[in-house]
Each structure stands twice: as structure tokens, then as C-alpha cells.
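Wait, mind explaining this?

_____
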Amino acid sequence: MMESDVIIIGSGVAGLISALEIDQSKKIILLTKKRLEDSNSYLAQGGISALLDETDRERYIEDTLRAGHYKNTRSAVDTLVDESRAAIASLEKYGVPFSRDAQGNLLLTREGAHSVNRIRYCEDQTGKFIMDALIAEAKIRPNIKILEDTRCNDLLIRDGKIYGVSASNKTNFNIYANFTILACGGLGGLFENTTNFRHICGDGVGLAIDKGIDLKDISYIQIHPTALYEDNSDRRFLISESVRGEGAVLLNHKKERFTDELRPRDVVSSAILEEMKREKVKYEFIDFSTIKLDIDERFPNITNHLRELGYDPRRDLVPIVPAFHYTMGGIRVDLDARTNIENLYAVGEVACTGVHGQNRLASNSLLESVVFGKRCAKAINISKIDFPRIYDLAWSSIDFDKVKKNIEERIREDEKSKTSQV
């Protein structure tokens, strides 16, 4: 048995920001199924979007709503946009080195469905740089205990309140706490063709289904247009949307351009899949040669990876295919990350505030994690516990073999429900 004030399940940006923003007088246990670095946040390439200034507010809101097909929750979009600059300031406080020009000004890029350049970035490995900074800070915090290679097997819930979790690494044990935060990512590992880590496979949603926790928009999943095509690949290597934002174009096998590369992700993905179907091929191409800036300087990780595989991105067309990328739906939460279970919170991709609607605007995912992770921490900091802890709950584990089937069933139900409402 272990005990703490707060349990956090997951080690991506959402979980780490929540941990760092919670008052340091509170003891925190953060557990993660693999290593701290093994989260989808670490893989994020393109960047993190944020408001330019007040003149950009309505424009940014409209970009987010339009990309989401106006199925977004407007209050969540307003919150995301209005608190975006504070989110960037928080990351800089923790030492995130955003790319700057010679004069020290933040460099901004653009991705699909953004009307202006408002995306901050760290080379072409924004997620890695953010995660490295947050992990370094978390490791020196005396109130944060990190448990790697530890799985959350069940939620200890009684009478609509959560008292902790059942977990396991080399042994089985319960962790008791006043608050529990789910930050365990989306559904990507369930899909054969995915840009996600394979082990991030819907554990949080599976736990929610098992425990009757409310879900929202679970059928809203996002396909990324440009994952590197390889004959054999456990996880598709992502070719960032910012590559197209800097001028790369999409070509078919006749070297013809067939779509506007900067439309929303779902539109571009559909265009690629239609062109593949028309040509009866397994992939199309992205052409880096139309980019005017130095691609090795701007995209060092991507270009190095491609060269290791034998592609010269300055000369060669690079094969791409759409792949599962992001879960817009998830556990239903309010703007402070609360679920319908008392003192259970959810943040990041496992959660659904409704901010993304039916399709996420590029570079809003890291931002969502920071904005709502901070709001979750604030809610916990000001909460008052009005019930005693219970320590007599037996260790338990849900049947994870059934998780995939349960999630697939809920996705079908949600799709059917939304279709009947049209």
C-alpha cells in the first residue's frame, strides 16, 4: 500500500504540467506504464499554438471552430485561446527553449487551417524539448514521486467517489489519495496504422467504460495526412504539418499536385486517400523541394531520419500515407478537468472538454494539455476534502483483454448516435 495527496496516471505534457502546477505542499505520486519519455507528447514535432495578441482572438477562435466543423464546445475554445499566452509563459518558466531569431524574437510558423503564423516551436521536435524541460523539473521536486514501468489496473471508486487506484509493477498494490488525475493518453495503439506509441492504447477510456464514467464524442478520431510510408513499421514516422506550412506540396504518382495542403487535416487526409484509391496505390508523395528555407536547419530531426532511410529530401519525393494520430473524444470533463466521479480529474488526450470538436486544429493539442492541466491543478489546490479516506478496498484489475472490444463498441454506438442526429 502507498498513499499520497494526488495520484497522476500518465507522464505526457498534461500529467507533468498538472504535477508541477499543484501546490508543492501536496505529495504527488506520478505513475507511467513505460518510461517518462514514452508518451505521445514526446513525439510531437510541429509546435504549440497561441494567441498573437488581442487582435488575433476572434480569428484564432474561428480557425479552431472551423477546423472542428463547429462541433466544438464554445466555452472550451474561448478558454483555450484566452489562456494560451499564459500557457506559453508557463513553459518558458520551466525552461522550454522555443526557437528564436537573432534578435531574440520568437519564431512563428503556420500549419493547416491556421489563417496566420501563430505556432511556437522548438526546431522540429517541440514535444521532446517541452518534455525534457518538464521532466527535469519534475525530477527535482521533493513532493513528486515518480513510478515508471507501473500500470494502473483499476480505479478504487465507492459511492461515486474515488479513493485511489490499483497498480502493479513487480508486485500488486493499492495507492490511496485524495485526488486522482487520468492523463494516460488516447486510443492510437489500438489502430494498425498509427503515429502513436503502441502501448498508448485506450487504458483510460477502458477504465472509464468499466466504471461507468461519462464519455463524450468518443467516435471523433483524427487521421494525420502525412505519415512516412514504410512496408513494415510498428509506428508510422510523422512528417510534421509544419513541413507543408513552410511550403512543401503533395504530389501523386504522376507528380501532379492534387489538393490544397493547408486545409484542415481531415480534408487533406481524405484528399490523399481518394487520390490513392483513384491511382490504385498504397501511398502518395510529399515534395520538400518547394520549401524556400534551409530544411536541414528548420527540420533537422525529420531530414536526418529520412536520410538514414535513404531519402534525400532535397531531391527525392518522400512517400506518405494518412495514419491515425489523435483522439478528440474521451472522458467528459468540465473546464477544470472534473469528471462525473468526485475528485477524479482527466486531462490531455484522454479527456474531452469539447475544445476540438470533430477535428483538431493543428498544434492545439500541446496547448490543450498545458491550459487544462493548469486549470486542473488550480482546482485541486483550492479544493477542500469533505470525506475521510477509505483503506479497506481490495486490489483489483479490469480485464484489459476486453478493453479494445469495449472501446470499439462505444465508438460504433457514438457514430450511430451522431448519424441519427444529422
About this structure: The mean pLDDT is 95. The first strand starts at residue 2 and ends at 3. Residues 42 and 287 are 26 Å apart (CA to CA). DSSP finds 13 helices and 19 strands in the chain.
